[in-house]
Specification:
Elements (H helix, E strand, L loop, with lengths): L2 H13 L3 H14 L5 H6 L7 H13 L5 E5 L7 H18 L2 E5 L3 H7 L2 E6 L2 E7 H6 L4 H22 L4
Parallel strand pairs: 1-2
Antiparallel strand pairs: 3-4
Protein name: ABC transporter domain-containing protein
InterPro entries: ABC_Ni/Peptide_Import, ABC_transporter-like_ATP-bd, ABC_transporter-like_CS, P-loop_NTPase
Keywords: ATP-binding, Cell membrane, Membrane, Nucleotide-binding, Transport
Amino acid sequence: MAVGEQIAEVAHTHLGLSWSQSYARAKTLLERVRLPDPDAALRAYPHQLSGGQKQRVAIAAAIAAGPKLLIADEATSALDTIVQAEIVALIRQLVSEDGMTLLFVTHDIALAAELAERIAVFRHGELVELGATAQIVASPRHAYTRALLDAHLGLDAEPLLRQSGAFR
């Protein structure tokens, strides 16, 4: 299926829009997620897009029905650092503009600290720590959380702590 059809199908199915309205919504969404040349993207197939473009299309499809909750599971894990930053900024903007709640699943605690007001740390499917981001980053209680932070802190401590608000 072409990208436009995939996004339009969500709007058609969940919002009850006509197909022409659904395609118009798909184009608007591709513009919102900042895909260059949304008209061409509507006709493109996923294999014709880059990883970052595919992620933008996935985000457009995810918000096509106007959800109140956006679940982003490893939304940036296969992307390079620059594209990852763009996608994070885009998600943050869309969530803010649309008044959505974001549940961001990631193995990257630095990224979680950048995005989240609260962090839940799971290990082997079990919740081991839950709290405000600044508190978790500044004084983790569980050994696994400390290990995650130590792994990041060895690379570059200051941005994680500054972004989390722990030292603001």
